[in-house]
Structure prediction request, 221 residues.
Amino acid sequence: MVRDLIRSVSWSKVLLVLVLILVPALTWRYVLWREHQNRLRLIQMERQERRNWQERFEQIRLARHGIAPGYPLQIPNAVIESVGEVPSRPAGKPMLIWAPHWFEGSPAWEAKGWQRWRELLTKCPDLLLVGELTCCPEDASTYRRQLQRLVTQLGHPRIGFWLAMNAQWCKNEMQDPFRAGWVILIDSRGIVRLTTKLKRLTPSEQEIRLLAQEYARLSTP
Prediction:
């Protein structure tokens, strides 16, 4: 009887049943997939908007400290000591000031963490790279030794450091004009041309490329 039933069912009916089952199931999966993609897109847009807002807020805060594109770099209320072959103030050469995240194990304390910056300096033959570290005056000698050791490990004539000694900045980081993760590009006249925040602890290839493009524009008024 079962065999007779199987013979009585034509392949066209089987295909019709499959279509009636599979088409709604696949359509529903596609709808769910589209909804998921839309949610991911909205989440990504919200994250990007939050990052943009935070960066705009930081740029406003930097401007209040005297660090804004189009204006001379101002560093008030701090003793700046240079470590390595860089001046303690802008002096006739373009400079890129980077305030990395200084903590134990950070790439900033390892010579290999500066490899991307070496690539940038290769593309920008006159650029000086300055790593900035804010500290309390009583801790300056310790950090000075560590930075000098790092300068020796790096062995690059255009990489040096600023040791900014200010007790108030250490107690309240909102008063520190050099916020961790930010870079400040200034031209040979000491005019700020760019302030931007790195997305990670060290620059990406795309960020190095963009900074090299900004450096190429320094000759334009």
